[in-house]
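For concreteness, we quote verbatim a single protein encoded this way:
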Amino acid sequence: GTLAAQGFPLNRWVDVTQAAHQHEPSASCPTNLQVVYADMHDGDKKEVTISGVSVTVKPSGNNQTWVVKSELDATSCSASIDFKVPGKPSPPPVTLTATFWNTMSASTLAPEEKTEFEFTDPSGTLAPAGYPL
């Protein structure tokens, strides 16, 4: 068997040292974005749309129809995301914080830049507050 579809990320290691949290999460917080992200926790894809400060998250590539709406805090480039919406299977029991990041490979041959959202639980229920989920 296979672990995931070809090109679908299996895992992501996130720096949790104090030094990592002393920097701004992103060089610039987007005001216009529509991207499909691989959700490694759920093993599926989510479409994230940012328009101004409005954030919309919805499933992608399946027959689910749920929608999460939130507002983006441009200072922290993060949003409170409550996945407890009608039709969302197995939502987290608490509201999560999604922080937008720009990441870049260290390759000098073919550097690649990507965007990602890091989810944390500010309540400390699922993991220590601020720790990546």
